[in-house]
Amino acid sequence: MRAITYDQYGDPDNLTLSDVPGPKVGPAEVLIRVRSASVNPVDWKVAAGGLDPLMNITFPAIPGWDVAGVVERVGLDTPEFQPGDEVIAYARKDWVHGGTFAELVTVPVRAVARKPKALDWNQAAGLPLAGLSAYQLLSRLGLAKGETVLVHAAAGGVGSLAVQIAKATGARVIGTASEANHDALRELGAEPVAYGEGLPERVRELAPDGVDVVVDFVGGVLDDTLAVLKEGGRHGSIVEGEVAEKGGLYAWVRPNAADLQALADLADQGLLTVPVTEVFPLEKTAEAFRVSQGGHVRGKIAIEVSS
């Protein structure tokens, strides 16, 4: 099968389009023929060695943790799915080797949900990791109907989904972004504010008594978070571990089929969509990594593997 591989840690120049054997399908796994994958910052960080202290790797490795595709085959004791099912998954495994930037990928059934009909393949591929990051952080912080939440980096891949999930919960959403992205945030249902110096004052103009919950998807904003948080409010980050020292929650997303299915259901209810900024063919994955590394990406970057 065709796959993007790398045989040592490094920059995107290490990525190669290769012909490699297809994966074996173990018990409680499904083999997915990949229609689309998506790029997350963690993909190029893993390929650069950034998670080497945490995760074992076998070279050559195939990057990618997001996938949307069609079940090709199921392993032993896997009654949940059958060949032909359209599915999505956050396909992170316990070690780095067989990722989603390939024509075929195996995924444990515990990570697989049914593809939402309301999303196309590229949008569906952009949902799992980013959507779960937002959903699990907001859930663990207990965001409730009627509360006000501040979303840092609200126009990004995770932030734009957090805005929609919070709105679906019945919360009021204030989101930080550059002014160029303010109209896009309004369309998602957020009240936009410009990030940078003076942010607490701008937030307080909208919420004089402060906000109930703050979620951080960019890092480096802890002082701003604490300046706008109500007494007894909750805050968390998927980026900055220091939040734990200030009473916050540092969260690491995990594969979870039930959570992912909840997101897919929101999409089919018309409450959630996935903004896709750029689409690259599989052979241009290195270019897609460079775009992601440049930052300031609004929404998601998709890798179209097959049609």
From TrEMBL:
CDD domains the UniProt entry points to: MDR_like_2 (cd05289)
GO function term, MF aspect, one: oxidoreductase activity
Gene3D superfamilies from the UniProt entry: Medium-chain alcohol dehydrogenases, catalytic domain, NAD(P)-binding Rossmann-like Domain
A Pfam family recorded for this sequence: ADH_zinc_N_2
Keyword entries, A-Z: Oxidoreductase
UniProt xrefs under InterPro entries: ADH-like_N (IPR013154), ER (IPR020843), GroES-like_sf (IPR011032), NAD(P)-bd_dom_sf (IPR036291), Quin_OxRdtase/zeta-crystal_CS (IPR002364), YIM1/Zinc_Alcohol_DH_Fams (IPR050700)
All copies of domain Enoyl reductase (ER), residue ranges: 10-303
Keyword Transport: no
Protein name, per record: NADPH:quinone reductase
